[in-house]
Amino acid sequence: MTATADQTLRQLGPTIYLPAAVWSTGLGAVAPVIVLTATSLGASPATAAVVAGMLGLGQISGSLPAGVLISRIGERRTMMAASALAVPALVACMLAPNVLLLGVAVALLGVCGAAWMLARLAYMTEAVRPELRARAMSTLGGVGRIGTFSGPFLGAGAMHLAGLDGAYLVAIAGVSLATLILIMLPSVPHDRAIPAGTERPGLWTVIRAHQRTLRTLGVAVLLVGALRASRQTILPLWGASLGLDPATIGLIYGLSGGIDMLLFYPAGKLMDVYGRRAAAVPALILLGLAHLLLPLAGGAVGLTAAALLMGVGNGLSAGLVMTLGADASPTAGRAEFLGAWRLCSDVGVGGGPLLIGAVTAVFSLTAAALTVGGAGLLAATLLQRWIPGTSDAATRGHPASQA
């Protein structure tokens, strides 16, 4: 165990959580504005949705290269490179003269986000002792969710003064501030760049060596990503189908997000003390059941109940994907493995809304809700089966450490 493994969550605060919070807040400011920017450039609603989806495509395409880059130059330099690309990408989004350039800039922004978050994951996998790992990961996820939740409010205030450009200015300020924090604060005790001349396993060598994990537990993680992303799409769609006004739908969605944010630390502690399955399986059952119950929601009260259930399920899964990836990652080729692991999750995140759209187009929104709900129960079954017993056993027998 390296010396860095003695770090607590409090010690990780300034160097890990603070920059991540600022970064997430900045990017959260532009997340709801991308579609509006596309439509202002003359895009149809369908085209605008595709442009917004380029963010997820960028994350998917950036995961594997980011893992290789981290292995070669280290986490800190990778984040600096991501920041150096994110600022011009945001400027391009703000000044894009056409939809095509906007889509390219949005995709580049997704690549930068993938590199940033993978660098944090790679560092924390080695920097935190195993009995504290889930809490560390869930806190990182929680910080990101808080930033994503608060960013749009800052963006809205800025847009009141400067129009759509205001949201991008907030994002540029957030990315720049996060980078400044990285520069000003001392380097983290561990920054794993493999020394030149040292034999390192290639990306595809690592993937082949761990293909069984990726095609079993990785498939379950893909479904987890799909469930998480689908709720962000299906709640507004269901509210609109009920004839609810946008303010009511927004309030219901906000309540779900509030419950979600409150549970990130308890979820991590549950995994650390009682094992990964103790949070993973109930979380996916709740997410699945919430989708299955949506057809019974005939008004605002019913939709609120389903949304709150989704919030509880999503909150209990905070940090789950990162924790399982850290548990499964090898010492040699860790960054490359984590890049492949993130790819599984990102494909699910990108595919969830597409699944809803496809099933709704062919059948109905009710069929989409039932399909996603069934996928949630399947994910719970797969997690129960494929989470290694050692992942649970390793968390037992260790006293709950101070955070």
UniProtKB/TrEMBL annotation:
Gene Ontology annotations for the cellular component aspect, listed alphabetically: plasma membrane
Main location group:
membrane
Q: Where are the transmembrane segments?
A: 16-36, 48-71, 103-123, 143-162, 168-188, 247-267, 279-312, 355-383
What subcellular compartments does it reside in? Cell membrane
Keyword list (alphabetical) reads: Cell membrane, Membrane, Transmembrane, Transmembrane helix, Transport
**InterPro entries in alphabetical order:** MFS, MFS_dom, MFS_trans_sf, MFS_Transporters, Sugar_transporter_CS
The signal sequence is none
Q: How does it sit in the membrane?
A: Multi-pass membrane protein
Q: Which Pfam families match?
A: MFS_1 (PF07690)
GO molecular-function terms, A-Z:
transmembrane transporter activity
Source organism, top-level taxon? Bacteria
Limits of the Major facilitator superfamily (MFS) profile domain: 12-391
Q: Which Gene3D superfamilies match?
A: MFS general substrate transporter like domains (1.20.1250.20)
Q: What is this protein called?
A: Predicted arabinose efflux permease, MFS family
The organism is Actinoplanes derwentensis
From the broadest rank down, the organism's phylogenetic lineage runs: Bacteria, Bacillati, Actinomycetota, Actinomycetes, Micromonosporales
